[in-house]
Amino acid sequence: MSGTVKKITDVAFKASRNIDWDGMAKLLVSDEARKEFNNLRRAFDEVNSQLETKFSQEPEPINWEHYRKEIGPRLVDVYKEAYESIEIPKYVDTITPQYKPKFDSLLVELKEAEEKSLKESERLEKEIAEVQELKQKISTMTADEYFEKHPELKKKFDDEIRNDYWGY
């Protein structure tokens, strides 16, 4: 096995151990995002599995002496010479340079979307808490208590009364 393939396999294996898939899955809010995330995870697992099984195993060395005894030295020497003359081309990665910038830009977009989603979730949590509080107090709340929480409405109503505008 070439050293490059072994390095790629080792990097992929280490990367798979460091990915917190469950933690990332908890951050997703939409069904479409969950679907895409599951597709990504499945594809990553498939590639990682192929790297582990196909490329991480060293091939068994050929026992030339065994074949010399069984078949005969002249024929085995011809095969050995032909086998050793085969030059296995080195893998040249031309794909990663094409997709690395795209992947990096997607990571930036992901971080921005994550921040935006967290801010929106925080805002919605506050709004839900306010609505639930209002729901509990609505039956006993006075107009002054309501206007205390919403001064912009009090100003609007005061302006309407002062200008003799009753909405019709």
Automatic annotation (TrEMBL):
InterPro entries for this protein: ATP_synth_F0_dsu_mt (IPR008689), ATP_synth_F0_dsu_sf_mt (IPR036228)
One Pfam family hit: Mt_ATP-synt_D
Coiled-coil zones: 107-144
Keywords: CF(0), Coiled coil, Hydrogen ion transport, Ion transport, Membrane, Mitochondrion, Mitochondrion inner membrane, Transport
A GO BP annotation: proton motive force-driven ATP synthesis
Annotated compartments: Mitochondrion inner membrane
Main subcellular localisation: mitochondrion
Keyword check for Amino-acid biosynthesis: no
Molecular function GO labels: proton transmembrane transporter activity
CC terms in the record's Gene Ontology section: mitochondrial inner membrane; proton-transporting ATP synthase complex
Highest taxon, organism lineage: Eukaryota
Recorded family membership: Belongs to the ATPase d subunit family.
Function: Mitochondrial membrane ATP synthase (F(1)F(0) ATP synthase or Complex V) produces ATP from ADP in the presence of a proton gradient across the membrane which is generated by electron transport complexes of the respiratory chain. F-type ATPases consist of two structural domains, F(1) - containing the extramembraneous catalytic core, and F(0) - containing the membrane proton channel, linked together by a central stalk and a peripheral stalk. During catalysis, ATP synthesis in the catalytic domain of F(1) is coupled via a rotary mechanism of the central stalk subunits to proton translocation.
Designated name of the protein: ATP synthase subunit d, mitochondrial
Organism: Jatropha curcas
